[in-house]
Design brief:
Number of helices: 29
Structural class: mainly alpha
Number of strands: 0
Strand content: under 5%
Shape: globular
Radius of gyration: 25 Å
Largest sheet: none
């Protein structure tokens, strides 16, 4: 035992030193080349320490997870929504569900501020806020039969604050789903390779689901090997299809993609979780984590340097071309997923608590999955930071700012202090077989260029175009897995809301209810998506500017609910674990909301933008991004709607936080008045490991359970 302790201390000391060295190099190096490998070292070292010590402390000392307590998946198993799912499959599902567009796009956009602010927020944010939120929400939802975040707020905070939380959470969910779907449409439109490969993951997942349920129950290793083999075949075949006569069949127009996405969202929402959702997300995780791991390995082998400044002038002045606003608060809004994301709380109180086998698994699935997603965000920021800064700004600045020719773009970007020649811009596009890379906003193309840069240094420059298009398809797969789980969670939220009025909806697996609510949720985000695809300034495009703030306001709701539950469940001395992240998130998001509503800078403030465009209309002028006078009126409408919605959502979140504070103070003063909606204790009959790899004791328990000799109480 002593030798094991000495070995453990030595290993964790080495991990800490590697992480600390990475941080020191990133923070202190100025005016010299910095290898991107130091960013990887800082991230992985910190993640390892956080998971081993901080997450374990929260799970065992604060939450006091109980392996003898039956979870909703065991007690309420119905094979539709409630189903005990192998921890490895559930880890894949949960990670795939939370890892949408955010960890890929947000860090790329935030790179305009430099690589250091984003790196600090992504890593510190996930350790102390994002992963904590996900794990604690998952734990409390599991203790409450998988209740949704809004319903937990209603039951634990009260009808007033709870109603505000329900309305805010559902409205934000629809916005998030619409934005995710729009990113998928933009990525797959006119991409037969991506459409074919992603489409093939559906029948592969169905086969995997039936394999585990009917053909070979429990054979995770077998089905994993089969699934990965079929997935790789689909990826390779996708390129064959794109170069064959079948290309036209899989080249879909945006409007056609909208119809298919809505249909898929509806079907995925009503089918049993074991049939499509869980195996598909598990399958997708292999590609996601595999690609990110290979990317990290490529960084270690190729050792690219960080070409972006550690902190740019745009961070100091807040006049960046990618997005306007100062470093505080807008870096913390732009980078959500990967650091702290309210959307994750909806998954942690949606599908996952209805599928988890043991409370002891909340650390691995809640905290661990979020660390995995944070690693994706770090790699996205790294990819944006290793390409030429001039190319980065030419790709991410709108056409109205840099123009449409490489000559004009080179001149404008040069005026910002980042020199790149017109020939270099043209060659960058040619190397990835694109006609132009100018104003390829949204983050995805920039990430793809960075990925192709790293992989081509390992495999050779001739494959640069292949890696670029692979990365584009990879991002679409990332996002689609969040869309299907998100639609199902939206259905749960709506069922919880309607269940407060119409009793049968309380049963989330009631078939008429699940069909009706799934149709409503799909119709809502589908409508915004359809209009957004057909009108460049309409539909979900109208709501896109409030995507980041909405997501972080939702995180404030989740952290407020968690803090309230910690206080009411007798964990007052540990309330700081979610209380401090709540205070930070509320400060950041409410500051950003205030600026977006009332700022005098038209690039930041919605109402100021409305005034500028209205004055231009009165003068008969057309301002970019508008191209016609009708567009000008649309911009005025959009600015008004966004300003009002931002203000309304901020007020709703203030109501939730204030009501939560009232409940906490009342509990401290008069604990007898508090009630908890926690489900009664029922002893578990299942045996399952807490982590990815079972301990010696867990292996023995599983062996005894398998032969039917486990003693009562084991």
């Amino acid at each position: 035992m002593r030798t094991a302790n000495v070995r453990s201390i030595a290993i964790w000391t080495l991990v800490a030193l590697i992480g600390a060295t990475g941080w020191s190099v990133l923070a202190l190096s100025r005016g010299e080349d910095v290898s991107a490998a130091w960013m990887v070292a800082a991230a992985l070292g910190t993640y390892a320490i956080a998971y081993r010590f901080y997450a374990k402390f929260i799970a065992q000392k604060v939450l006091k997870v109980d392996g003898t307590r039956a979870t909703p998946a065991e007690r309420l198993d119905n094979g539709i929504d409630f189903h005990p799912t192998d921890r490895r499959v559930l880890l894949g599902h949960h990670f795939a569900a939370i890892a949408g567009a955010g960890p890929l796009v947000g860090p790329v956009l935030a790179a305009q501020m430099g690589y250091l602010p984003g790196t600090i927020w992504i890593i510190a944010g996930v350790v102390f806020a994002g992963a904590v939120q996900d794990m604690v929400v998952l734990f409390f939802s599991t203790r409450r039969d998988g209740r949704s975040l809004g319903q937990m707020a209603r039951e634990e905070i009260g009808p007033f604050g709870g109603a505000a939380a329900l309305i805010a959470a559902f409205a934000i969910m629809i916005i998030l789903l619409g934005v995710l779907a729009l990113v998928i449409v933009n990525a797959l439109a006119a991409s037969p390779w991506g459409t074919f490969s992603i489409g093939m993951t559906i029948p592969i997942a169905l086969f995997m689901g039936f394999y585990l349920r009917v053909l070979r129950p429990g054979r995770i290793a077998e089905v994993s090997l089969i699934g990965v083999g079929l997935l790789l075949l689909a990826l390779v075949a996708g390129r064959w299809v794109a170069e064959s006569s079948w290309a036209d069949t899989f080249t879909l127009a945006p409007s056609t993609l909208v119809v298919w996405l809505v249909a898929y969202g509806f079907i995925a929402s009503i089918l049993p979780v074991w049939m499509l959702l869980a195996p598909r997300d598990y399958l997708s995780t292999f590609m996601k984590i595999g690609t990110i791991a290979l990317l990290a390995l490529g960084v270690v082998i190729a050792l690219p340097t960080l070409k972006m400044d550690a902190v740019t002038d745009f961070a100091r002045h807040g006049n960046g071309p990618v997005f306007a606003g100062s470093l505080f608060p807008f870096v913390f809004i732009t980078i959500a997923c990967g650091a702290l994301s309210g959307f994750h709380a909806l998954i942690s109180s949606g599908t996952t608590p209805k599928m988890i086998q043991k409370e002891t698994q909340v650390r691995m699935i809640g905290y661990g999955s979020m660390l995995m997603e944070s690693s994706v965000a770090i790699m996205a920021l790294l990819a944006a930071s290793i390409i030429d800064p001039g190319l980065y700004f030419a790709m991410n600045a709108p056409a109205g700012v840099i123009g449409t020719t490489v000559q004009n773009a080179s001149q404008v970007v040069g005026s910002w202090g980042y020199q790149i020649s017109p020939d270099a811009l043209a060659q960058a596009a040619q190397r990835v077989e694109e006609s132009s890379l100018l104003s390829r906003t949204g983050g995805a193309p920039t990430l793809a260029v960075g990925v192709s840069e790293i992989f081509s240094k390992v495999t050779g420059g001739s494959l640069r175009a292949f890696w670029y298009h692979f990365a584009i398809m990879f991002e679409a797969l990332f996002i689609l897995t969040a869309l299907d789980a998100g639609t199902r969670v939206g259905r749960f939220m709506l069922q919880d809301m309607l269940g407060n009025v119409i009793r049968p909806f309380k049963n989330v697996s009631w078939k008429p209810g699940l069909a009706i609510t799934s149709a409503i949720v799909c119709a809502l985000w589908g409508y915004f998506l359809w209009v957004g695809v057909h009108e460049p300034l309409g539909g979900i495009n109208q709501l896109f500017p409030i995507f980041g703030i909405s997501n972080q306001l939702l995180a404030a709701v989740a952290l407020a609910v968690c803090t309230t539950l910690l206080v009411k469940s007798g964990r007052l001395k540990w309330a700081w674990i979610t209380g401090i992240p709540l205070a930070w998130d509320a400060t950041v998001t409410l500051t950003a909301s205030w600026q977006k509503v009332f700022s005098s800078d038209p690039r930041v403030g919605f109402f100021k933008q409305r005034q500028v465009f209205q004055d231009a209309i009165d003068s008969g002028k057309v301002l970019p991004p508008a191209k016609t006078m009708d567009d000008m009126h649309t911009v005025v409408t959009n600015s008004t709607v966004d300003g009002v919605l931002t203000a309304v959502l901020a007020v709703l979140i203030i109501v939730v936080i204030a009501d939560a504070a009232r409940v906490c103070v009342r509990h401290v003063r008069r604990p007898a008045l508090s009630t908890l909606s926690e489900s009664p204790y029922v002893e578990s009959k299942l045996t399952a490991p807490a982590g990815l790899f079972p301990t010696r004791t867990e292996k023995e328990e599983e062996r005894r359970a398998a032969v039917g000799t486990a003693a009562p109480g084991d």
